[in-house]
Structures are given as structure tokens and as C-alpha cells.
Amino acid sequence: xxxxxxxxxxxxxxxxxxxxxxxxxxxxxxxxxxxxxxxxxxxxxxxxxxxxxxxxxxxxxxxxxxxxxxxxxxxxxxxxxxxxxxxxxxxxxxxxxxxxxxxxxxxxxxxxxxxxxxxxxxxxxxxxxxxxxxxxxxxxxxxxxxxxxxxxxxxxxxxxxxxxxxxxxxxxxxxxxxxxxxxxxxxxxxxxxxxxxxxxxxxxxxxxxxxxxxxxxxxxxxxxxxxxxxxxxxxxxxxxxxxxxxxxxxxxxxxxxxxxxxxxxxxxxxxxxxxxxxxxxxxxxxxxxxxxxxxxxxxxxxxxxxxxxxxxxxxxxxxxxxxxxxxxxxxxxxxxxxxxxxxxxxxxxxxxxxxxxxxxxxxxxxxxxxxxxxxxxxxxxxxxxxxxxxxxxxxxxxxxxxxxxxxxxxxxxxxxxxxxxxxxxxxxxxxxxxxxxxxxxxxxxxxxxxxxxxxxxxxxxxxxxxxxxxxxxxxxxxxxxxxxxxxxxxxxxxxxxxxxxxxxxxxxxxxxxxxxxxxx
Length: 520
Known about the structure:
Largest sheet: 7 strands, mixed
Helix content: 25-40%
Radius of gyration: 24 Å
Main location: other
Keywords: Cytochrome c-type biogenesis, Disulfide bond, Redox-active center, Signal
Strand content: 15-25%
Subcellular location: Cell envelope
Signal peptide: 1-23
InterPro entries: Thioredoxin-like_fold, Thioredoxin-like_sf, Thioredoxin_CS, Thioredoxin_domain, Thioredoxin_ResA/DsbE_sf
Oligomer: single chain
């Protein structure tokens, strides 16, 4: 499906369009508030094995994604063996059945979801690019594979929000009908599967409404855009704010657009193992139920959103939302001054008083360690890190940082599609701003392929904000990356003229420049 292009990794199906609408069957599909049973979890072993007869798909790159933690990640296993044509794993599953996602990375990208029940023994086979499951609950396993074959893919936004709504409704109805047909033909599905499948379709639909697919995928290897669109995680409000469509067409009654959905639809702590539920929960809380204007991730909005969460959610749902509040606002740049640092630190301390899932505490620990860098000097060992210039000279980082200017460091790579997307967004206004404010933009690559690094510089030369290009001599042992706990890119760091840390995890370049203009 993805072939040789490198795109932002998403765990949702890709898109297409269709039309018709029937709001009555959408409104209130999933109702009722569930009690928080998060303290009654037990675990049972699950066994998964698989083989492939498809030469284009290698199981060496088989991944099982678990959404039981904060952001979702690879399933923790007690045993895991994989070769090009077979895979075997054992793992402890929490005491409730839940959806997992299979991802296989090779010359093509293969993905599907599977409903796993504690104690399951599951076997799958891949043939002609199709995954077929057998095992303890065979009818539970094959629904999503068959659903994805129908090409009921979500529509992307084309400049008309009413058309987008109509197409999205239509796809949801087609998926609902397919589920009903599947259940009629597969009588051995469990009640838990039926409920989970309905909830998955329901919350995936609502997530696509609140986060329209309007971000086109960029292929880093061919320097072209693909016919693939990702969700706008800043909500439909950002989609409309950036739209060039007709103003009258874009006027939106949010209550009608969201089918008058109520907050009680989201008070379901047992669904914190469901990826689309968690995405929708965060976005509807932040952008709709909280009645906030277009979010700017400020201290004031942080406090307002926290107050709303405390007043409207409880138990594990509240803990999840408060943890996401801290992680999301920090990711978007909160922490650029001492007051913001203190606010985040206070909330991390409050959260840590609870018994947290390890993924929650790990995320908070990481932010805490980065907050501790605020207004600190770079240690000498970081200045000694070695980088390579485009002329193939090796110099220490101290030489790169010698000028007495505010410095915006952009850590990137030629193979990183989000990095390249961001670089391509820069414009003449940004270039003028760095001149007016005497800002030095420094691009530090973690590329290990020197040729591709140089080629990408040349190809995007009109988009870079400076010619200050360097690549790390040894990214795996870089003191710079270690000091700033760099685990993902793009990553941005702001230093003052004396190389004190002003922001160890600044947001995108455009936001950074506006931040520097207004504050430093």
C-alpha cells in the first residue's frame, strides 16, 4: 500500500468518498455511562502464530500494536520469534477482550485489526496480500480484514465541509451495514466482539468528523505528494480556519455537524484500550465540549481544560485526560517560560501521586527531565560533539554555536517525511523574521547517508531558512541528542545568545519564530 515512499505513520485506514446521509441512525448509537472497573484487571496468556505464502510480505517486520498504554506501542511479549515467512509470540493480555493492530512493514505496508480475548490461541496465514485468521474465536478475528477489503475508506476534506460531512456519514453507514451482514453470516461471534466492533466504527467515525483528513502525505523519496490524507489533529476548527473554500459553505453548526452527541458518550473507561475512542475523547473534550476557541496551547487554556476535565470525568478516564493534557501542551510548546515550567511541573507532581500505568509515568518522567533543562547552560561535553559540514569537514559543535545570537536548532533527517513537510512550509515572511530578529537557524541532521543528506539540501534549498547545515558524526552516541533526550524528529531547540536553554522541546518552526518574536 505504501511501497517505497516514506509517510507519516498512522494507524487508520486510508480514504475515498461516497455520498448519502442518515443522521438518525448515527445519533446515539453508543449510549450509557460505564462504571470505572480499571482496578479489577487480571491477565491471561495469548498465543499468536503466523505464516506467509506471499513473497512480497516478510514477517520479519511483523508488529502487533497494543493501545492499552498512553499512546499505543508494540505489544510487550514474553516470547517473540520471527523470520521472513513465520512469526510466533506469547503475551499477557489484560483481563478484558480488546482490539490489537497488526502492522507489517516491507516493500508494501500491510495492516489490519484483530479482536483478542484473554486465553486466545490465534493463527494467521497471508496469501495474495490477504490475512486470514483461525483459532479459538475465528469469527471474531476476520471481520476487520474483510471490512478493509470493501474499500469503504474515509473521505478527505476538499474545501466544502458540508460535502465532507455527507461523504463521511455515507462511509459510516456502509461500514455499519457491512458489520450487520458479517454478524448475520458469522453466528459464532461473541457478544464482546459485537459491542467492540460497533464502538470501533462509532468512534472512528466521530474522530474523522472532528479531525478531518486534510493533510496530504508527502513522499520523501520522490519529492511528490501522494493521494493519501491524514487527520488534522488540531480539529475541524483548524481545517476551516485554513480553508480557502466559500465562506457561506463553510459556516458550520457544530451541534448538527456532530449529530448532537453528548459528553456521556465518552464516559467509557473500559474503552481506554481503543485507539479511536482515546483520540476522539481527547479532541472532543478539548475542541468541542470545553467550548474553547481555537486552541493555542497557552497557560490559560491549559487551566481551563484541566478544570473542565476535573468537573466532568472521573477515575481512569480523568487520569488519562490529565496526562494527555500535560503531554500534548508540552509537545505544542508550553514550557517556554518559568511560569509555564512551574505549571507543568506542578501538574506532573499531582499526577504522580496516583498509581499510574508505566507508559503514563514514563511519559511524565521524560517531560520532567526536559523541563529541568530550562535556563541551563549546555555542558562542555555537548559542545564537544562532532558534526560534518556539507564540505565534508569535521568540526565541534562549539564552532557551530559560537555566534552571539538566539539560535533555533532544527534536528531532522532526509528520510523523515514530517521533517520535510515542515521545511517545505516555510515562507518569505519567516525568512524576513529571522533577519529582523537576528535569529540563527541551524539544521542538524541525524542522517547516516551523507549523499542523501546533501541531495535533500539541494532539492529543498529554497525552503531552508539558512545555509547552516550539519550532520552528526555519530547519531547513536551523540551527546547533543542524549542531553536533550531526543527520541523522535523533527525536534526543535531554542538557545539564547549565551547558549542557555530557552526551550528544549519547541513546536514547529513557524510557531517557534512567532514565539521568539513575541518573547525573546
